[in-house]
Amino acid sequence: MPEELESSLLLEVFGKSPEFRVVDVFVDNFVFDLTVDEIFNLSGLDPEELGPILNKLRSWSIVTEGGREGSYTLNTDVDAVGHLLLFEHELIRGKLGEG
Predict the structure, then answer these.
(1) Cβ contact 64:58 at 8 Å
(2) What is the DSSP letter of 30?
(3) 28, 4 contact by CB (below 8 A)
(4) In sequence order, which residues have a C-beta less than 8 Å from that of residue 32 and are 6 or more positions away?
(5) Domain 3-95 maps to which CATH number in 1.10.10.10, 2.60.40.1230, 3.40.50.720, 3.40.50.300?
(6) Contact, 10 vs 27, CB < 8 A?
(7) DSSP strand E in the chain: where?
């Protein structure tokens, strides 16, 4: 598993399920469109696991197709995604002793 995932606060709280590892990649890179290869490299998952997970996340509107062909992006228009980003921010503040 990539080192950045081992230290993710979201994964410490919610666990390291394949679905949440992918969500964590999107949260950490929410301003970017990510290709399947980039998601694969950042999540540490097997490539064959990604298709079903991306389909599930798209069905829940958590991710959408990105601006680049074959890319995906976090759907920040969905309230739940906004709350997740805020939750991560608060976790970081708490970890730094600011909360």
Answers:
(1) yes
(2) T
(3) yes
(4) 73
(5) 1.10.10.10
(6) yes
(7) 34-35, 63-65, 71-74
Angle subtended at Cα 68 by Cα 47 and Cα 39, rounded to the nearest 5 degrees: 25
Q: What is the pTM of this model?
A: 0.86
Instruction: At 97, list the tokens.
Output: 């002793």
Nearest CA among 18, 37, 13, 33 for reference residue 76? 33
Residue 35's Cβ-count burial label (10 Å; 0-12, 13-18, 19+) is: middle
pLDDT at 97: 80
Q: Residue 8: pLDDT above 70?
A: yes
Record the tokens describing residue 54, joined without a space: 């991306």
CA 92 to chain centroid, in Å, comes to 16
